[in-house]
Design goal:
With about 475 residues, this protein is α+β, with helices and mostly antiparallel strands. It has helices at about 45-55, 95-110, 115-120, 195-205, 215-220, 255-260, 265-275, 295-305, 335-355, 365-375, 395-400, 400-410, 420-430; strands at about 10, 25-35, 60-65, 70, 75-80, 85-90, 125-130, 135-140, 165-170, 170-175, 185-195, 210-215, 230-245, 275-280, 310, 315-320, 320-325, 325-335, 355-360, 380-385, 435-450, 450-455, 470. β16 (about 315-320) and β17 form a beta hairpin. α6 (about 255-260) packs antiparallel against α8 (about 295-305). The two termini are about 35 Å apart.
Length: about 475
């Protein structure tokens, strides 16, 4: 069995084991990227370039893994309403309101290609209350606005970000510390732009770059017999099963729960591309809530709610003089073979517990029309998530009953201080009500040399959060 033959040793030493390791001073970290769309940090859509830029920069707040907020340049945030916020700055960072205005204007002037444009373009006006205090008035209500304050700040006078200067050309991007000292582990971060992944891997194998990013098994196989480290992270692409809250069958909690219990999503992932996708449950990148696979539990919950199997092994229920069958119409894009295969997996697994799935393969245009008209029970949909917990764009799918509606209202009416806690409550309610069923999230491999340290705890899209502790081990 050739797939069991070990072709490389993959190191993954724990931080505890590495606690006594010394790092080289002022190291020049070298990164290989393929087909970088452009090398301007203000307009590039590359997630890696943006992640580095954000993590070497100061920001008003930092979003933590559990959606809690770490205040940085912002000392406090007071929510007056969902359209008005008062922000007081921490004077220790030497950035005033003029610097904040300059930073926001820089992003807005960069246009829609800037990853922060849509978040900050909702600002109607900024009113200075003092040198270190201002009020932000938005164009429309947005209870999640405080999470949008995690954007790179620029010093209005020196036009720099954090402790780094920035330069770029067609060949790549370089971030360089302008006040490096003897305690600095990273002197510069150089990103080289390659035409093909083959060229990237060649330079990695030959030690010319320290890390690169792999998106397929083919990329990994190019490495061959070489020792290296690897870490996975989610890039934001996900697949979810959403339902129609007005569906006579899906609207019943016991059916939603039984369907969720019936799906062995680990098996679905294995049958798709198990190396570069993983199971996800809710449309929050940092959620720790996990659904379970339980065939017996699925049948028990249907039986306890008055459903009985007919002669074909499908649950039905006698109600108001009529029989209701546990049948759900699943619509899926006919041109997406991966989704069609997953739909068939869902059908077979649900059938195993007594729920009938009728698959309708349609064009994307027809699917949109059917969803708009409410002519469906469930739909497989791709969703792109980011590090903010704003899922208002999915609210029409997820707000399925009074319980979910109350949880959304609690978030919308929340103070700035209680918002993270209320978002966690929203996650719990969506899970408890089985408002949706996650299938998978797409993964990318961070592949780095065995002598590089600092990526032990990366996850999701927070790759360079530990930027001040990344470096080369002194042998």
């Amino acid at each position: 069995k050739l797939d069991e033959v070990i072709t490389a040793n993959v190191f993954n030493n724990s931080q505890k084991e590495q606690s006594n390791i010394n790092l080289e001073k002022n190291y020049n970290l070298k990164i290989g990227l393929t087909l970088l769309d452009n090398t301007d940090v203000n307009t590039s859509t590359n997630l890696i370039l943006n992640d580095i830029y954000k993590n070497i920069s100061l920001s008003l707040v930092k979003v933590e893994e559990n959606y809690s907020l770490k205040y940085q340049v912002a000392k406090s945030i007071e929510k007056i309403s969902n359209k008005e916020y008062i922000i007081t700055l921490n004077e220790d960072y030497k950035l005033d309101v003029d610097d904040i205005v300059f930073s926001i204007d820089n992003i807005i002037s960069s246009g829609e290609s800037n990853m922060y444009y849509n978040r900050l373009n909702i600002i109607d006006k900024l009113d200075e209350i003092g040198k270190y205090k201002f009020k932000a008035t938005l164009k429309e209500d947005n209870p999640y606005f405080i999470y949008y304050l995690d954007f790179p700040l620029l010093d209005n006078e020196n036009k720099v970000t954090g402790e780094y200067t920035y330069s770029s050309n067609e060949e790549g991007v370089t971030f360089t510390k302008y006040n490096s000292n003897q305690d600095s582990t990273i002197e510069s971060i150089k990103i080289d732009n390659y035409n093909t992944i083959d060229e990237v891997v060649d330079d990695f194998v030959n030690g010319n770059i320290d890390l690169f990013f792999a998106t397929s098994n083919n990329d990994m196989q190019l490495i061959g017999k070489k020792d290296y480290n690897v870490k996975k992270y989610k890039d934001g692409e996900t697949l979810f099963l959403f339902g129609n809250k007005n569906s006579n069958v899906f609207s019943r909690k016991e059916v939603r729960t039984a369907l969720m219990y019936s799906l062995n999503r680990d098996e679905i992932v294995k049958n798709s591309d198990n190396n570069f996708i993983e199971v996800i449950d809710l449309p929050f990148l940092y959620s720790t809530i996990k659904y379970k696979y339980d065939v017996v539990g699925a049948q028990n919950i249907m039986n306890s709610n008055g459903w009985n199997k007919n002669g074909y092994g499908i649950y039905e229920k006698y109600e108001s003089g009529n029989y209701i069958g546990a049948t759900l119409r699943l619509i899926v894009n006919e041109q997406d073979t991966n989704k069609v295969n997953i739909a068939n997996n869902i059908k077979n697994m649900a059938q195993n517990v007594g729920i009938n799935i009728e698959i309708e393969t349609l064009s994307q245009e027809v699917i949109s029309q059917r969803v708009e008209a409410g002519d469906y029970d469930i739909v497989l949909a791709s969703v792109y998530l980011n590090e903010t917990p704003n899922i208002n764009f999915l609210k029409s799918y997820l707000n399925i009953n009074d319980e979910t509606n109350q949880a959304f209202l609690q978030v919308e009416n929340s103070s700035a201080e209680n918002l993270p806690q209320n978002i966690q409550n929203l996650e719990y309610v969506l899970s408890n009500e089985v408002a949706c069923i996650g299938i998978y999230a797409r993964n990318i491999n961070l592949v780095y040399q065995k002598y590089i340290l600092g990526f032990d705890n990366i996850n999701y899209m927070k790759i360079f959060d530990n930027i001040n502790n990344i470096g080369k081990i002194i042998e």
